[in-house]
Amino acid sequence: MKRSRTYVWIMLFQSVLWLGGMTTVSNAQTRSGSMFDVMAESLTGDVYEPSRWRELSLGSLFSEGWDEPWASPPAGDGGAPRQGWLNTFDGVFYRLGVATFNFADDYNNNGKLYAGGLTLYTPFNRRFELRTDIPSAVSNKGTGTNYEVSFGDLQFTPRLLLSESRNFTQSFNVTLRAPTGKVDNGTGVAAVTPSYEFWANAWRGLVLRGGAAIFVPYGGQSRNEVGARTTFQGNLAVGYYFTPHDRIPFGDLVGYVSTNLYQLTEGPGSKTTTVTLTPGFRTYLGSDWYLLGGVEVPVTDPEPFNYQILSGILKVF
Questions:
Q1: What are phi and psi of 6, to 5 degrees?
Q2: How many Cα neighbours within 13 Å face the side chain of 4?
Q3: pLDDT bucket at 6, cuts 50 / 70 / 90
Q4: Burial of 244 per CB tally in 10 Å (0-12, 13-18, 19+)
Q5: Ramachandran quadrant class, 270 (left: phi over 0; alpha: psi -120 to 50; beta: rest)
Q6: Residue 263 β-bridge partners
Q7: What is the SS3 assignment for the chain?
Q8: Is the pLDDT of residue 30 over 50?
Q9: Using CA atoms, how far apart are residues 7 and 2, in angstroms rounded to an integer?
Q10: Can you name the residues that pair with 293 across neighbouring β-strands?
């Protein structure tokens, strides 16, 4: 049964890519060659040349950008680069990979949690990108008294760029979570999570980003055995860039605080609100490598954990 569900998820994921590709073909063939030329240039071309970028409006969502290779956007008028931080919403498109490792103390009042993974951002054109979250291992006590190790749940997130100007970017995303983990770890959850995300910079190195999402699990295993429930998720993060890019190993040094809110909308505990704060940083090490870190701390009761240490090493390609 679990293998059958995984197969359905793979087919759904392929269908999403096919539908996105159909829109690209209709425009790319008229002006810029084939869909595959646009994809290849987006994934392997020199997308960091500033002159290749131009603004995209919400009104031209279905008419512009689909036939153009992705181009990395410039810094905002304040001078802040468009970069990703740990435990925040993205808003912006990237072309990179980041390996992460997290440690949570007293996770669900039942010991410690260790989790690692790899996240890839692969743009196909100016309007469409795929984020892929590949877990490497999850270790915790989960629903039992002994530590269990599993692969975790694989996630695919098709992302649609709604609009992008010099100072503001917004996107719509749908995360498809496949139940590839073990129930004993509290994983093995099938879910769909639509979300809206934004990024903004208009004054010096100050950046605001965030958005809203709704986590919707489905299936007997997710809801009955794991206890996953529909949850509203909100994020708002503020950060400031202190150094220029070439100040290696402290280039593009940013300090930020990310606020995450989780509100159950059904079932037992539906009135429970969880809020966490994550002070974090990101710094440029040179040769397109970045170091990221943060500590997530709950500020409401009941606490899902005492604290969680977040770390990542990122490579732009």
A1: -65, -40
A2: 2
A3: very low
A4: middle
A5: alpha
A6: 232, 273
A7: CHHHHHHHHHHHHHHHHHHHHHHHHHHHHHHCCCHHHHHHHHHHCCCCCHHHCCCECCCCCCCCCCCCCCCCCCCCCCCCCCCCCCCCCCCCCCCEEEEEEEEEECHHHCCCEEEEEEEEEEECCCCEEEEEEEEEEEEECCCCCCCEEECCCCEEEEEEEEEECCCEEEEEEEEEECCCCCHHHCCCCEEEEEEEEEEEEEECCEEEEEEEEEEEEECHHHHHHCCCCCEEEEEEEEEEECCCCCCCCCEEEEEEEEEEEEEECCCCCCCCEEEEEEEEEEEEEECCEEEEEEEEEECCCCCCCCEEEEEEEEEEC
A8: no
A9: 9
A10: 281, 311
Amino acid at 145: T
Cα torsion through 191, 237, 158, 72, rounded to 10:
-170
Cα angle 21-27-28, degrees, rounded to a multiple of 5: 75
Q: Residue 110 contacts by C-beta under 8 Å, 6 or more apart in sequence?
A: 140, 141, 142, 145
Which residues, other chains included, contact 87 with Cβ-Cβ below 8 Å and sequence gap of 6+?
258, 260, 278, 280, 294, 296, 310
Domain residue ranges of the chain, discontinuous segments joined by +:
76-316
Cβ burial, residue 46 (10 Å; 0-12/13-18/19+): exposed
Q: What is the percentage of the chain residues whose pLDDT exceeds 70?
A: 87
30 phi and psi, to 5 degrees? -85, -25
Q: What is the pLDDT of residue 143?
A: 65
pLDDT bucket at 144, cuts 50 / 70 / 90: low
**Residue 8 φ/ψ, nearest 5 degrees:** -60, -40
Q: Fold for 76-316, please state it.
A: Porin (2.40.160)
- Which residue type, as a one-letter code, is found at position 109? N
pTM above 0.85, yes or no: yes
